[in-house]
């Protein structure tokens, strides 16, 4: 992304895999499957890059946290009214196919430093065990990936920064509903909440860490 701005520094931390965790947000059928109710353009195309990060994390014993959104009653709250596809068509209700992880990619391997979190709001920290998991592993940097860039991914990135976690946000391992939304989030994150880089740049930086 851009170089230092008048109000913030670009490279204010280095991503050290020994003090990092990878969060894979909502790679569920609802967002990733072809023709899905909330299909996110680019989500399937980014899977090879996301899988590179997952494999690196597994090889280096970097904690991996997978999230799934469950908005069925009574958890959905206002979402059941705001989004008819959720409230009326039961999208992202546990038990519905839309809730399941997209099968065309690596799947969670719970245990040995991998976790699955069910969340009911956009922010993966809200009323979940995410913060406890990160603190248990002494994580300093959270690598945020998944869908949708400007919704759950940005909400989680902002929440992480508010908790003093460094945020690494790979621009090509997040996807949303259109490029305008995607680019707006990248600018926000890079200026105010973390660092934006490509997957290749992130992997190179982590591989060089000593």
- Rg over CA atoms, rounded to whole Å, is 16 Å
The top-level CATH class is Alpha Beta
- The low-pLDDT segments are none
Mean pLDDT: 95
Q: Can you count the helices?
A: 8
- Number of distinct beta strands: 7
Q: Label the CATH architecture.
A: 3-Layer(aba) Sandwich
Derived from helix and strand composition plus strand pairing, the structural class reads alpha/beta
How much of the sequence lies in strands comes to 15-25%
- What is the helical fraction, as a range of percent? 25-40%
Shape: globular
Classify the fold: give the CATH topology: Rossmann fold
Please give the domain count: 1
**End-to-end C-alpha gap:** 25 Å
Work out the oligomeric state of the chains in this entry.
single chain
What does this structure look like?
The protein is of the alpha/beta class. It has a single domain (17-208), classed as 3-Layer(aba) Sandwich (Rossmann fold), CATH 3.40.50.850. 34% of the residues lie in helices and 17% in strands. Strands 1, 2, 3, 4, 5, 6 and 7 form a 7-stranded parallel β-sheet that branches. Strand 4, helix 6 and strand 5 (166-170) form a beta-alpha-beta unit. Helix 6 (149-162) packs parallel to helix 7. It is globular, with a radius of gyration of 16 Å.
Short characterization:
It is built from eight helices and seven strands. The chain has helices spanning 29-32, 47-59, 79-82, 84-87, 130-136, 149-162, 179-193, 199-208; strands at residues 20-25, 64-69, 114-119, 141-147, 166-170, 174-175, 195-197. The longest helix has 15 residues, at 179-193.
């Amino acid at each position: 992304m851009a170089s230092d701005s008048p109000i913030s520094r670009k490279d204010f931390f280095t991503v050290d895999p020994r003090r990092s965790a990878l969060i894979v947000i909502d790679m569920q059928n609802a967002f990733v499957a072809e023709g899905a109710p909330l299909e996110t353009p680019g989500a399937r195309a980014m899977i090879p890059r996301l899988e590179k990060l997952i494999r690196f994390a597994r090889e280096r014993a970097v904690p991996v946290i997978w999230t799934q959104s469950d908005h069925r009653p009574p958890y959905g709250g206002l979402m059941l009214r705001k989004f008819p596809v959720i409230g009326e068509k039961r999208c992202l209700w546990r038990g519905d196919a839309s809730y399941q992880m997209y099968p065309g990619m690596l799947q969670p391997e719970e245990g040995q430093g991998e976790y699955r979190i069910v969340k009911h709001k956009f922010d993966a920290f809200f009323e979940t065990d995410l913060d406890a998991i990160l603190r248990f592993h002494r994580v300093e940097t959270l690598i945020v990936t998944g869908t949708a860039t400007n919704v759950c991914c940005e909400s989680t990135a902002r929440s992480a920064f508010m908790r003093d976690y460094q945020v690494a946000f790979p621009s090509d391992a997040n996807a949303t509903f259109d490029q305008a939304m995607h680019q707006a989030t990248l600018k926000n994150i890079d200026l105010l909440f973390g660092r934006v880089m490509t997957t290749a740049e992130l992997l190179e930086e982590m591989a060089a860490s000593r």
